[in-house]
Design goal:
alpha+beta, 2 domains, 3-stranded antiparallel beta sheet, 7 helices, binds iron/sulfur cluster
Length: about 180
């Protein structure tokens, strides 16, 4: 199978030493398309994980008994599906919200206290701009593919300790789901 092109720069040099565990209680939303891609990837690489997804108001990777994402390798502190991981995992520490009153998608960056990578990006504006470009592309496509039910459910999730870095008009196709 074709492994997707590198969707995100490898930040393991920063994330690998971080002690915050953002893959704990993460529950990143998964579209039907992403679920298929990840399942194909697991199969192609002979990675056996029983029932890797939980299907609730929206689909997300099952959690271990300790609350870690089932794709998180505690020993290496890496994501075992890095090249095909969920869109919101690629986008992090950039995150988003939709303001239905203004019809805009608002972009946020996590604060350094909850994500050291965000601190690195904030002090290296060229890195942030490059990462934001990739994050924006992933998130916009992700929202087009999400069902209305899943989109409504994920927008209810609170994301504290973030600050706004921009906003733009959202496509009518996405707004109509809300
Ligand atoms: S999919 Fe990978 S990056 Fe995303 S929460 Fe799970 S382990 Fe972390």
């Amino acid at each position: 199978m074709r492994v997707e092109d590198e969707r995100q720069k490898n930040f393991f040099n920063i994330c690998g030493t971080c002690k915050i565990d953002c893959c704990w209680n993460a529950r990143p939303p998964i579209t039907e398309k992403r679920e298929k891609i990840i399942l194909e990837y697991l199969k192609a690489y002979g990675i056996r994980i029983e029932n890797p997804f939980e299907h609730a108001e929206y689909t997300f990777p099952r959690e271990t008994s300790e609350g870690y994402c089932v794709f998180y390798d505690k020993a290496t502190r890496k994501c075992i599906v890095h090249s095909v991981k969920p869109e919101t995992c690629v986008a992090g520490p950039v995150t988003f919200d939709i303001n239905t009153k203004t019809g805009k998608i608002e972009w946020y960056l996590k604060m350094e206290k909850i994500c050291p990578l965000a601190g690195v990006m904030y002090s290296d504006k060229a890195l942030l701009a490059k990462h934001f470009e990739a994050a924006r592309k992933e998130i916009l496509q992700f929202m087009r593919e999400l069902t209305p039910k899943a989109l409504k459910a994920i927008l209810k999730r609170e994301e504290p300790d973030t600050f706004k870095i921009g906003e733009e008009e959202i496509e009518g196709e996405v707004l109509n789901k809300l």
